[in-house]
Amino acid sequence: MSGASTLLLAACGGDGGGANGPGVIRGTIEIASGTRTDADTALDLTVQGLDSSRDVPLNGVQNSGSPYPGNVTVGGYVSSGAGSYGNGFSYPADDTDQLRLSLVNGQRVTVNIFPAPYNPSGATLAPPSTQLRLEPVAGGVDSESADNQETTKSVQAQQGGEHDLILTASGGGPARYVVRVTSLSQGETLGVAGSDILPGEAIVTMEPGSGSGQMRTQAGTAVASAGQQRALGGGQHHVRMPREREALMPADATRSETVVRTLEWIRELEETPGVASATPNHRVKALSPTTQTGYPKQRWHYDLINLDKNAWDRRDGSGVRAAVLDTGVSRRDEDWHPELAPNINCAQQGCYDAVDDDYRPLDESDSDHGTHVTGTLGADASGTNGKVTGVAHAVDLVPVRVLGSDEGSVADVIEGIRWVLNEGGQPRADLINLSLGSQTNNPSLADAIADAEDAGVIVVGASGNAGDDRPFFPASYPTVLAVGSVDCTGERSEFSNFGVWLDLVAPGGGVTNGCGGDGKGAVFSTVPGGVGYLQGTSMAAPHVSGVMAMLRQGDDELSPAVARALVREGQITKATGTDAFDIETGSGVIDASAAASSDWSGYAALEPQREAFQFDDDNTEAELRLREIGNTGVAFSKPDVASTENWLSVVRLGERRFRVELNTDNMNTGTLYRDTLEVTYSANGEDRAFSLPVTATLESGEENRNAGAHFVQLIPVDDSNDRVEVVQKLVEANEGRYQFEFNTSDIEPGRYHLIAGTDMDNDGAFCGPGEACAEYLSEGRLREVEVTRTMNLSVTLETAFTRPVDTQADPGYRRINNQ
Fold this sequence. Notes:
Structural class: alpha+beta
Organism: Vreelandella halophila
Low-confidence stretches: 1-20, 118-122, 212-227, 288-296, 805-809
Distance between the termini: 28 Å
Helix content: 10-25%
Number of strands: 54
Strand order of the largest sheet: 23-24-20-26-28-29-30
Protein name: S8 family serine peptidase
Mean pLDDT: 86
CATH class of the largest domain: Alpha Beta
Active site: 326, 369, 538
Number of domains: 5
Region (Disordered): 139-159
Largest sheet: 7 strands, parallel
CATH architecture of the largest domain: 3-Layer(aba) Sandwich
């Protein structure tokens, strides 16, 4: 995990140093297991004097003699042409990279592309078209992606052995990329594009007992003045940068420069007494990628989830309140959509618009997104000659508008959640559907989601439509039911995100596998003025929300944790393969008939404290704990965890505590190993079971780790002091790690942040999305280094192309131009 930092040594007394000799900060940057770098990045081709410097791009396979291991993550650069960013930095041409990988049959290779517009120069370059091709070295079946401007590509090995991955770029500008052959965990991301951040805005969470008045008096000019903030509920506030602070920005500042200034302001907010946390406000979007028109064709997606008259005779969602946080619901004059009107009663259940701050959540989106999602969950066609019936057609719908025209801000989403939770009173809904999100983790949003769990509100989220395994938020938060999409055959839709964090799937459409015709390529539901088709994980999520309404109808005290246990144990899902858990479809397709046909009241289960295990050289063991959830009167016995593989062992540490560890003597280096742990136990004599995925890879040698040349900077915390300047070193990996040293006798004393990272595309900034980054942190926040002329300090950091999801979203740090 990147950003980890450890204080190794500080001399005792005074400022941590002695009077003899110059002051020094020494550091080691460890490199995450499996990390490699493209051998001809823009920096390599532009900056001379590095061991990795070269005049022209490499031809052929870069690492033909040493295939990358099965857990490799490679950062790199491609561009079909050469040019200038307009900020004093240039980019070279390098249209093809070829990497040799060691893969097992079925292993997926994912490449995420980060085009040049994310650089801080503000350049407006079109993204390049890219294509992947995976060729078995020994011959066999190739795998190839589309050639287009999509920023996520994947190919899958059709056999085991060595493969050459060929990445080509044509047209457009330069781009960074990250190649991955293992899934990201719930705690990792590839960084967040600065383009997602809304300049001049923040979400501030106050410490318990601190009110909005205290926020103003304690934070002074750092927090927005009166009239520039709004309470979101739960001690959270949406604040704007004070006008006097905005006035300090240059008139010609680029968007990226305003983002950097915004992040500096937010860091000041975090240090304000009474403030628990401060995070950027960022964009969130609705998730439907395509639209079709046609006549009602709901049967295929309801057949797929076993929803029929028999299920509806048992459960129809009656008496359950379901909040849909989206673009709102279609309304003409004073009438709701005829299929939605029977289940919407704003006077009784409530309606809310967090965007316009009123109680008329009208759908003004271009895609009809909110109306369509709401119809799938709870449309009622009875008595209207309607063409659409929702999964829970008798549910009480609570429409909450948090998105404008298909996108909005996380502050509005938080306000919508807080309105539903109704702080100090009973929640206004039993469940929340979130067919929206982004790849930006926001701790303020995570806090609101956690409060929903505490309030007993079930939260369902769409997994995202990027077609890769990057965590998508809020769906990938552990207390949200993350829903992916399947097509008419029950296979993962080509656009649906997947990963170890995925819980289950539901129909969302797709045109592969012969599903494109006869209305089976998309989900049919309500749209403003009628009915129509949409496609995406947004359409899958309300199928699950409808089934959750059926569950709550049978047990109005059923907790979110128990709902997740029913999914995890396959009680209300249909497995899509031979294993109970599959990385592409989770625990399987939601099963409405199973949910409706049994009495789940009083259900209890043993819940794991982690959902997946990913091992490597640096992490060879982990603990698994099981805890009771649900009915406290249930007697649990015989808990056990087992693996059938000789490379994996499970050691019992207690009644419900186990250690899972690798048997490295039974493993070959460079090979990806996969297994599922089988967890079994008995509840009141009933046998239960579920599976947890495990992956593991050992490297051939730590000395081969390399994340590319790293810029190491001491960045002043207070930039108002003209004597304090950024200090920079450029270091390269040696024997699998980096070493650096600053002579502090030549540095102006003061408080600094210590940052290191790569600039793969030579755009003048390092640590951007898709680049390796290491930050000196303490409890997830940047840790200050008090620099003196006589100090003696040694630190260790860790760098990686992946990073913790709670790392501050940042477009990167500026390089000193002469280095």
